[in-house]
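Subject: Sanity check before I submit

Could someone independently write out the structure tokens for this chain? I want to compare against mine line by line before I put it in a report. The sequence has 148 residues.
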Amino acid sequence: VFGHKSNVSLVFDFMDTDLEVIIKDTGIVLTTANIKSYIIQTLQGLEYLHCNWILHRDLKPNNLLVNAQGVLKIGDFGLAKFYGSPNRINTHQVVTRWYRSPELLYGARHYATGVDMWAVGCILAELLLRVPFLPGESDLDQLTRIFQ
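---
Independent answer below. Compare away.
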């Protein structure tokens, strides 16, 4: 981060692609080692966020950025929020539906790290299957798919 006069500039690492592109590209071979690496890096990033009382609230393959060396970074913090206060009421309209936890689909206003962890599980399944794991067409359809 640096500033000049009234301008603020942010400089980020260049990331070549995201997990959504990798998952959809059948020309890319995803080994077990690749999948483990992506999930471990995601969990390490989440550990940092959660230890600092931050929920990402929009984890999905397209928000997990990957460079040519296989380094993964979590991106798009537009829905991120501090958590931990018992008096803080949150919106349940977060996370792309396919990665939304059951408590969010039921309209919970008090939630914590489980919403991010649920999304990681959905992403893991998607990495293994190469298709979205629970592609619900509505919130009700999403709940039905989860509990079937």
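---
OP: Matches mine. For the report I'm noting this point. The chain has five helices and seven strands.
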